[in-house]
User: Fold this.
Amino acid sequence: MNNFYGMGGQPFGETMGVQFIARIGAGVNPEQMHAERVNGYDPLPVIDAFRRKRKLLEEGRGPVLLDTITYRISGHSPSDASSYRSKEEVERWLEADSIRAFRKKMVEIGAVPGDVLDAAKDSIDTAVFEMFRLATDLEASPRVGPGSELVGSVMFSNRRIEKFDTRQPEFLQDLSQNPRVQQIKGKVRTAMQGGKPVPKMKMYNVRDGIFEALLYRFAIDPTMAAFGEENRDWGGAFAVYRGLTEALPYHRLFNSPISEAAIVGAAVGYALEGGRVVAELMYADFMGRAGDELFNQLSKWQAMSAGQLNMPVVLRISVGAKYGAQHSQDWTALAHHIPGLKVVYPVTPYDAKGMMNAALAGTDPVVFFESQKVYDYGEMFVEQGVPEGYYEIDLSEPSIKRQGKDLTIMTFGPALYTAVAAAHDLEKRFGISAELIDLRSANPLNYEPLVASIRKTGKVLLVCDAVERGCVMQTVAATLTQLCFDDLDAPPVVLGSRNWITPAAELETLFFPQPAWLLDAIHERILPLKGHHPQTNQTLGELVRRSGLGV
Amino acid sequence: MPKSIVIDPKQAFARGAIKLSDIPVNAYQRTGEQERAAYSPEEFLAIWQDMCAIRQFETILNEIKTKGAFQGLAYNHAGPAHLSIGQEAAAVGMAFSLTSDDHIYGSHRSHGEILAKGFSTIRQWSDAQLLDLMRTYRDSALLAPVEKAYQGTVKGLALRFFIYGAYSELFARETGFNRGLGGSMHAFFTPFGIYPNNAIVGGSGSIAPGAALFKRVNRKPGMVVCNIGDASFGCGPVWEGITFSAMDQYRTLWDASLGGGLPSFSIA
Assistant:
């Protein structure tokens, strides 16, 4: 709808240089998007254009760009003082008003007599007014009452739908012939075997867990499609999709343009229409490129439909490391802040498979963070290893990775492994038994096991790789302070990365929490460790100093 | 990236020029006689009635926002009203030939498009289909008050049901299309193929291609119309959506039985 204005800014002659929107088609493809400008002040040329363009679309020759010109006689909104256009301009368009002009035309060509048209107008005007009156009547048309939890009840659909269509899912090969499936078959599904670490090439890892979950759902839900940058042929930048190219036809797995907004936006459109979709952002740092689609679209349409629509989208986002300031950021906090998104970050093969399975069986948007630090990791916590069969992990449930009694360390993301090293040190050097809990999920989050652990230990350190200011762990710590105030021997302590740019790979130990930092923070703020000499400054004074500097 | 498509230096460096063809501007030309022959009197009347209904719908909103009342009925509407008075012909022209398999996505200024698509669908559906929808849609929550206020034909009832659902949605009533949780800038009614309008300028530009993708991948009938404004072409995601819709691979690499490009459609 080309009405010649934004709010007041004028694309024609002022804020853009294209002059005719239809011109844009020429830059898109050899068909020039079959673009044309149509007079939208008369319904008949528009009808004609739509009929002609439909034919092109049915012949598979889309997309089409139609530059339909019209004019907004009303202001942008009722507060619009029309300071950006002259009275004379509006009057000219009023004179050409489409409704008046169409009436004149119909009478002139003898299509419908004027009195019939006028009677029809009176009758529809009355009907519209009556419905307006009915809608303003609070008795006939009530609003939800005070204290209503309606909005809360529709933020997530929480349904479980195996498949969105009944037809046979399409594959290019018998899956037992798939090279990746065969390779995984020969792998050891634990990180250790006979007391020795399993060699990398033979070890079932996090990316295998994600792959198995995806393939399982691809084989059940024929609507499921996946796309993103380098997803096909390359197998995803981090080889999670290796093997899927051989298995799936193009329309179920394809490379998108380098268009993060379109990747997430298209996933939203696909899901709104009733399909299941897995979209991928190669790095969390690219979330900004899909900011609106992630924060305003993916997260909101279920609730704005009052629970009538589903949003079965899994948005895989990989968190980098070693790649510096714009490719190594954990932005879980951004997703966590936005109502309407489920936000998970599994870091073990067992969790990755079980949580991906659950995400893919559900109907809600799940932002599924993955860490490049741990794609290669095998299963170190579940003794029996990662099951070959199907299982799901509740997307709100934290996981106790190690039992302890003196202190709780909670982690989110790959900081789990930092905490494992710290817990080992605490035990060996100070005889302190630390309980390790991996949140796995930031939202929704069941606090009960977290509270139970603090009831036992009275102390809690929360660690993640995201920058400390505003990270997910700050929210968890604040909530736990309220839930466990009487059980705590010391305030919950949050340890994140420094509030800096992520420096080069060689300097990363300055930035990401290291096992020594955990011990230092425990020593300074929770429980003095006998004979401990801190390597870093984790004192409260330092916290005040850094905060004052904004770093 | 596919190995089947070779990038050849000889070809890449070959001398030539890119040829563009003319882009039609307001090319439509019909005599009155031709136009009269192209539509029945009922169709002319329908187009007229729909344009008038939209004008009235929005004039009422404009009056209550600026004067606090319309024809003596005072009402305070707290929320937004981004009106499209003047744009009725474009909306009605768009909706005229669309069926409920054709899905529209819109903008913050889409009351006209929603109404036009609803009216057009009501004309196309049978009385039985309409009654079934009205009765089952949210357990008659929208139908009940309208039925009380109007006893007439099924089409007349459906027309009022639809206008009432739209107004109620704008006024945050339980009787709105989506219980008032969408509102003016996000009103939609999917049974008629009316998909979310979007308060973010150009927001539909990246979403509608995904809707078209769904139709192509799952072999569903119909096309997708993305109604966005001229100014939204300054938004990056709109360009991204166009790029996504126009990828060569739909023709060069995808299963030919799915057809060529995405069945999407942008309107500036």
